[in-house]
């Protein structure tokens, strides 16, 4: 057993397993029932070892195309939504039948990006998942493609899986794909590409290496998997990318075998639930640029963001919206929930408290973003 992996995997109790489109569909189209049978058998064995498993699945559109005998993926978005509605039914039918053979019950949860942006709905998703686990039911989660608006879709289930892992405080996220793990360059066009076994820090080099790797079947790719790894490591959750077609892949991962790529969590920077939601669940509506003094105050001294340090306000947003905080040289340094609308901030930006009091009264004398609602990256 790899010692690093042993440290994290020996205490795993709750796992999120994300299964991508490429792992669920056959080259001829439609669902790869043989591989689906493999997953359900492996996951059932994991459950028999008293571990909790949550599945995030793709494959609804691919299943719908086959079911409706449509040869080419339509470009019209409403048609794709209709196909997803048909395919989701077929996908769950297959999952249910295979899990039933292993004496396991399943429950379906369909979510949209909008569900994660509203705090109460986000927590309701968590409560439903936890309740299903308490009922000894395996939750199967997918994006609700049949109703999601194109402009606010997750677009990939990698991000959804990472958000779910953080939401339910999972001990591990396993992303099963059609690739052996994360490589230093695209292995499909570079025969000398090397598999990276462990990633300790997702820096610019890692993000650059992620470009262009991915299946043509799914909407994700290695870029989205690295984005998911960022969410996980800052949530204190280890993540592994591995090849879904490896024999006993989940069992081997949990045994600590050196398989796939292991992303090491940052335990000293573990975000609390509210801050994870601010950082990754909410959609950002605008941005604020701050000076060096304000940057130092919030990054190094844990302070709230005050009007005096604001240089510029971009976009239109309301009180309670999530906004980006940028440095003077345009680096993203934080995200947070604004206490004022964009127009109000423009009136008081760069001013000290006594100036604001004199000009506008007590109404605008507040932190722009309180430190409790501010996530520093």
The biggest beta sheet reads: 8 strands, mixed
Using the alpha-carbon principal axes, give the shape.
Answer: globular
Per CATH, which architecture of the largest domain? 3-Layer(aba) Sandwich
Q: Can you count the helices? A: 15
Low-pLDDT runs: 212-220
Residue-averaged pLDDT: 86
Question: How many β strands by DSSP?
Answer: 15
User: Can you identify the CATH class of the largest domain?
Assistant: Alpha Beta
State the strand order across the main sheet: 3-4-2-1-5-9-10-8
- Count of the domains: 2
Structural class, by secondary structure, is: alpha/beta
Tell me the CATH superfamily of the largest domain.
Acetylglutamate kinase-like
Bin the strand percentage. Answer: 15-25%
CATH fold topology of the largest domain: Carbamate kinase
**Proportion in helices:** 25-40%
The rounded distance between the terminal residues' Cα atoms is: 33 Å
Q: State Rg.
A: 22 Å
Can you describe this structure?
Helices cover 40% and strands 19% of the residues. With 377 residues, the protein is of the alpha/beta class. The chain has 2 domains: 3-274, Acetylglutamate kinase-like (Carbamate kinase); 283-376, Archaeosine Trna-guanine Transglycosylase, Chain: A, domain 4. A hairpin with a 5-residue loop joins strand 13 (322-326) and strand 14 (332-337). The longest helix has 25 residues, at 77-101. The two termini are 33 Å apart.
């Amino acid at each position: 057993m790899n010692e690093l992996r042993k440290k994290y995997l020996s205490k795993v109790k709750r796992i999120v397993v994300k299964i991508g489109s490429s792992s669920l569909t056959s080259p001829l189209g439609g669902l790869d029932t043989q591989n689906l049978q493999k997953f359900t058998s492996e996951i059932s064995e994991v459950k028999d070892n008293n571990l909790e498993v949550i599945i995030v699945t793709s494959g609804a559109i691919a299943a719908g195309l086959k079911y409706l005998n449509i040869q080419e993926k339509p470009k019209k978005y409403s048609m794709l939504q209709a196909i997803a509605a048909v395919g989701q039914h077929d996908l769950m039918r297959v999952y249910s039948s295979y899990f039933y053979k292993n004496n396991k019950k399943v429950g379906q949860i369909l979510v949209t990006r909008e569900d994660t942006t509203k705090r109460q709905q986000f927590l309701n998703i968590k409560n439903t998942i936890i309740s299903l686990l308490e009922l000894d039911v395996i939750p199967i989660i997918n994006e609700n493609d049949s109703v999601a608006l194109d402009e606010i879709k997750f677009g990939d289930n990698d991000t959804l899986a990472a958000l779910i892992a953080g939401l339910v405080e999972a001990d591990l996220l396993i992303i099963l794909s059609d690739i052996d793990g994360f490589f230093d360059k695209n292995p499909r066009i570079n025969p000398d590409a090397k598999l990276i076994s462990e990633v300790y820090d997702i820096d610019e080099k890692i993000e650059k290496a992620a470009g262009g790797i991915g299946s043509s079947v799914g909407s994700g790719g290695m870029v989205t998997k690295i984005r998911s790894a960022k969410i996980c490591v800052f949530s204190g959750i280890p993540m592994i990318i591995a090849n879904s077609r490896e024999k006993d892949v989940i069992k081997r991962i949990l045994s600590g075998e050196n398989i796939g790529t292991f992303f090491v969590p940052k335990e000293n920077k573990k975000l609390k639930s509210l801050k994870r939601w601010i950082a990754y669940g909410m959609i950002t509506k605008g941005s604020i640029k701050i000076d060096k003094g304000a940057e130092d105050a919030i990054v190094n001294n844990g302070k709230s963001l005050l009007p005096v340090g604001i240089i510029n306000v971009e976009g239109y947003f309301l009180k309670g919206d999530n906004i980006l905080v940028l440095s003077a040289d345009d680096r993203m340094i934080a995200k947070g929930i604004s206490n004022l609308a964009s127009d109000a901030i423009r009136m008081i930006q760069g001013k000290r408290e006594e100036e604001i009091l004199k000009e506008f009264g007590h109404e605008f004398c507040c932190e722009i973003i309180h430190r409790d609602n501010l996530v520093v990256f």
